[in-house]
From TrEMBL:
<feature type="region of interest" description="Disordered">
    <location>
        <begin position="1"/>
        <end position="25"/>
    </location>
</feature>
<dbReference type="InterPro" id="IPR039993">
    <property type="entry name" value="NDUFB10"/>
</dbReference>
<keyword id="KW-0813">Transport</keyword>
<protein>
    <recommendedName>
        <fullName>NADH dehydrogenase [ubiquinone] 1 beta subcomplex subunit 10-B</fullName>
    </recommendedName>
</protein>
<keyword id="KW-0249">Electron transport</keyword>
<keyword id="KW-0999">Mitochondrion inner membrane</keyword>
<feature type="region of interest" description="Disordered">
    <location>
        <begin position="87"/>
        <end position="106"/>
    </location>
</feature>
<keyword id="KW-0472">Membrane</keyword>
<keyword id="KW-0679">Respiratory chain</keyword>
<dbReference type="GO" id="GO:0005743">
    <property type="term" value="C:mitochondrial inner membrane"/>
</dbReference>
<keyword id="KW-0496">Mitochondrion</keyword>
Length: 106
C-alpha cells in the first residue's frame, strides 16, 4: 500500500451541459452542478476560517490597539462571512449580501 501520486484535479468552472430552467434534463450535469456548488461553498467557508484565525492572532498581538491595527482584517472577515454557509441561498440579498457602501453627498 503506497501513497497515490498527485492530487485529483477538479474543474473550477460550472458544468457545461447544466440548464437551470430544466435541471432534471441532464441528471449527470445536475449532480456535477451540485458538487460544484458544494465545493465553492466549502472554499468560502475555509477562507472565512483562515481570516478568523488571522483576526484572533491580530487581537492577541496588538492588545489594546487592536481597534486601529486590526480594522482592515476584521472588515475582510465580516465581508467574507456574509452569505457564507448552508441554507442562505433563498434569503433576500439584503440580509446576507455585501454591505452597501455609504456614498457621501457633496
Amino acid at each position: 500500500m503506497g501513497r497515490k501520486k498527485g492530487l485529483p484535479e477538479f474543474e473550477e468552472t460550472a458544468p457545461d451541459g447544466f440548464d437551470p430552467e430544466n435541471p432534471y434534463k441532464d441528471p449527470v450535469a445536475m449532480v456535477e452542478m451540485r458538487e460544484h456548488i458544494v465545493r465553492e461553498k466549502w472554499i468560502q467557508i475555509e477562507k472565512a476560517k483562515i481570516l478568523r484565525e488571522k483576526v484572533k492572532w491580530c487581537y492577541r498581538v496588538e492588545g489594546v490597539n487592536h481597534y486601529q491595527k486590526c480594522r482592515l482584517l476584521v472588515q475582510q472577515y465580516l465581508d467574507s462571512t456574509r452569505g457564507v454557509g448552508w441554507g442562505k441561498d433563498h434569503r433576500p440579498i439584503s440580509l446576507h449580501g455585501p454591505k452597501p457602501v455609504a456614498v457621501d453627498a457633496e
